[in-house]
Design goal:
heterodimer; A: 11 helices; B: five-stranded antiparallel β-sheet
Chain lengths: 233, 355
């Protein structure tokens, strides 16, 4: 694969994988927490939080990217503070990961929330009555039973992060090796005379990775479902 | 000793129930909507009542006056719900040991007859098996009190009959007080030490099972067709013709083959509608059980019938007769005569081990 892909193309694939994996893994705990709050808690501002989470799904991605740039750009107070701590994200791959995570977040939360709402609170009551602390109830009952939704949410988020283009290119630009992910690279190759071959190879890679992720999640989901819904093995 | 005092305002329904019970099986009895489950949920801590005071022996689980409220896990209440609520992603064994209160599961497994199920998953169990596992799981959490909220309601009659003996063993062998919710008077007649009769969120009557069930004032709560008294009796002999001879304080009872050995004390539920009254000892009658009885109280219902409470020896009987007969026979407090019960009217399900 190293030979078949040119160094520039390979660079874009490796970067995209890194961005998507980091975005997915890093946002998963927050995704579970937000899904739990939205599914189980009623409070003033519930609708607002729900709207905020889903906003990136309905806003033009360029708008999200621009807002990120305003918040995290080197001139913004937050961005400057992060730069000072050497944690700046603007025009870096970490910025691409942040943009991808935010764009993928609604899909992740939605899938996790649906699975959480399917968990019978009666089982959690039963566990508490058996002496389990809230933490133990969550870890031993709630979390395992919502595992299929977490898995689905993670795969959706990963796929979305792999394909994220508009917010990324607006926020962190299209710098080879830093922020040129596969979609940005395809876009760049298509702007270049004679770049179609490279673009095609990246299109094929995209399809293979997407199919691979779907198949892997399907297999995993089946195993998880067999384990939790399980009749006798 | 169990003390419960729960007050809570629901939309359109007020719960204000207070009772004390000595231990053993305390049955909360009433129609659906009487507030049984709300009381049990408040005891478990699952319902935060407006006012609640719950004590088990010396332990205060909740006292809203004193601003004391133990968390659900800290209460150590074994709760068996209407549905088994087994954890679907764990084996039966992992369900049983979930509380980690003890790993000595052998005795409980033996008592409930679930030894063959340990490695199976809940989804593969029948309703009766799953409910037995749920009872075992609650028992293995080393509870101060066991709450059984209509544990048989979701089961068909065959499964109920399968579980009832295990519940009797639980009452007799496990040294844990039990709060048992039911709307089935036959279950309560078999299991309860104390009965708390509830109506529309209020306690109508509390007391020993035989007293409460033979109270004509409680009959409307039970439903006049289901009302019936409990007699204490001892099995004397099983006869060759399929009848068992028992003695109670009021005389001899002949019942269809009782499933208890000679010498055993049993409680017999006699439904009010199966009891006839006679002024003189009837002769030439097919009914075999004729007990001298004295009227203690008469309660007129809304329909054509009256509910008559009788003393037969030390025991109480309830008889449901028409108002016309009551007038014709001059039934009144202190009236003496005979109570007549057909043997076949007392089904084997109405005879159970003494409490």
């Amino acid at each position: 694969m190293m030979d078949w892909l040119g160094p520039e193309e390979w660079q874009a694939v490796a970067l995209s994988l890194r961005v998507a994996i980091v975005a997915t893994v890093a946002s998963l705990p927050l995704g579970i927490a937000v899904a739990w709050v939205l599914a189980r808690k009623r409070f003033p501002g519930h609708a607002l939080l729900n709207g905020l989470v889903h906003l990136p799904l309905v806003l033009p991605p360029v708008v999200t990217g621009y807002l990120l740039l305003i918040a995290f750009g080197p001139q913004a107070p937050l961005g400057a503070a992060l730069e000072a701590m050497r944690l700046g994200v603007a025009f870096r791959w970490t910025g691409a990961a942040l943009a991808a995570a935010i764009m993928a977040f609604p899909l992740m939360v939605r899938a996790i929330r649906l699975s959480l709402e399917a968990v019978d609170p009666g089982l959690e009551e039963a566990a508490a009555s058996l002496g389990a602390s809230r933490l133990r109830v969550f870890g031993t009952i709630t979390l395992p039973l919502m595992a299929p939704g977490i898995l689905t949410g993670a795969v959706l988020a990963f796929a979305k992060a792999m394909g994220e283009f508009g917010a990324t290119i607006t926020f962190v630009s299209n710098i080879p090796g830093q922020t040129r992910t596969v979609p940005s690279a395809i876009y760049a190759f298509l702007q270049m005379p004679g770049g179609e071959a490279s673009a095609w190879r990246l299109v094929i890679v995209s399809i293979v990775i997407a199919m691979g992720a779907l198949l892997a999640s399907e297999l995993l989901a089946r195993r998880v479902l067999a384990r939790i819904g399980g009749r006798d093995a | 000793m169990l003390e419960v005092d729960v007050r809570h305002d629901f939309p359109g329904f007020q719960l204000a129930a207070q009772f004390e019970a000595p231990g053993g099986v305390t049955a909360l009895f009433g129609r659906s909507g009487a507030g049984k489950t709300s009381i049990v949920r408040a005891v478990a801590g699952l319902l935060e009542a407006d006012r609640a005071c719950v004590r088990i022996g010396e332990t205060v689980l909740e006292d809203t006056e004193a601003r004391k409220r133990l968390s659900i896990p800290a209460r150590r209440i074994g709760y068996v719900f209407q549905e088994p609520r087994l954890f679907p992603h764990m084996s039966v064994r992992a369900n049983l040991t979930y509380s980690k209160a003890t790993d000595q599961i052998d005795q409980v497994v033996e008592m409930l007859g679930i030894g063959d199920l340990l490695e199976r998953r809940p989804a593969g169990l029948s309703g009766g098996e799953a409910q037995r596992v749920a009872i075992g799981r609650a028992l293995l959490s080393n509870p101060r009190l066991l709450l059984l909220d209509e544990p048989l309601a979701a089961l068909d009659d065959a499964r109920k009959a399968e579980i009832l003996p295990y519940l009797e063993r639980l009452r007799d062998e496990a040294d844990v007080p039990i709060l048992y919710v039911s709307h089935s008077v036959s279950e309560i007649a078999r299991l309860a030490t104390t009965v708390v009769a509830l109506k529309a969120g209020q306690v109508v009557r509390v007391g020993p099972a035989a007293e409460v069930l033979s109270d004509p004032d409680v009959a409307p709560v039970i439903g006049i067709r289901d009302a019936g008294a409990l007699l204490s009796a001892r099995v004397v002999r099983h006869h060759d013709d399929g009848l068992s001879e028992l003695v109670c304080s009021g005389g001899t009872l002949w019942l269809p083959a009782v499933g208890a050995t000679v010498g055993t004390d049993v409680r017999v539920r006699v439904e009010a509608q199966d009891v006839m009254l006679a002024q003189t000892r009837p002769a030439g009658i097919s009914a075999l059980n004729i007990l001298p009885a004295t009227v203690l109280a008469i309660r007129e219902g809304e329909g054509p019938g009256v509910m008559v409470q009788l003393a037969a020896g030390q025991d109480r009987l309830l008889a449901r007769v028409t108002r016309r007969s009551a007038n014709a026979m001059g039934l009144a407090d202190g009236w003496s005569g005979f109570a007549v019960v057909k043997s076949v009217a007392v089904a084997s399900g109405n005879v159970s081990g003494a409490v």
